From TrEMBL:
The keyword Mitochondrion does not apply. It is a single-pass membrane protein. Its main location: membrane. This is Biotin/lipoyl-binding protein. Signal peptide: none annotated. It comes from Segatella copri. Keywords: Membrane, Transmembrane, Transmembrane helix. GO terms for cellular component: membrane. Residues 171-201 are annotated as: Disordered. The chain crosses the membrane at residues 12-30. The keyword rRNA processing does not apply. Residues 181-190 have a biased composition (Polar residues). It is found in: Membrane.
Amino acid sequence: MNKKIIKRIYNVVIILCFIGAIGWCFSHFYHGSDVVYTDDAQVNRHITPINTHVSGFIKEICFSDYQHVKKGDTLVIIEDSEFRLHVAQAEAGLRGSKAGSSVVSASMGTTTTNVQTASAGIEEARVDMMNAKQDFDRFAALMKKDAVTRQQYDNAYARYLGAKARYEQASSRKASAASVRNVQTQQLGGSRTGSHRPHPR
């Protein structure tokens, strides 16, 4: 009798396994077609190039892999020590230009005074030269009539030559002072132009 029970149990197990196999085949046939298997799968990704206004070494990265970012977020921090050095040099140059401009402005005031003094000296020397020329012309006319001595004529001529030399010297001093003032004006303009140069950013 035990053998009959064991045989029945065995037959039930066989039948259940057979039914399970049929059910698995049925499920795989009708539902397995919706599943795709592949050895070459790909996932879409979005790559956005990033451009900076300045170049330099990256000091710090402010994002992690696959992190979602939006416009305005700080992504990287660039090392700015070199830029700070350029700014310091530009500021030093600006201070030097301003100092040079002050010196040139002060010197220009003195030079302008020299030009004005030379102009007044020219006018005085011109009047003296004209008077000496008139005296010489008068003595030259009298010399032809033997109305004056040779010594008087020579003295009048010497006074005229001296007055003429002083006039030429005064003219030369004015021209020299004016030339210096022109150079200082150009230097002052260059200093002011340099002081308005934009700083590197």
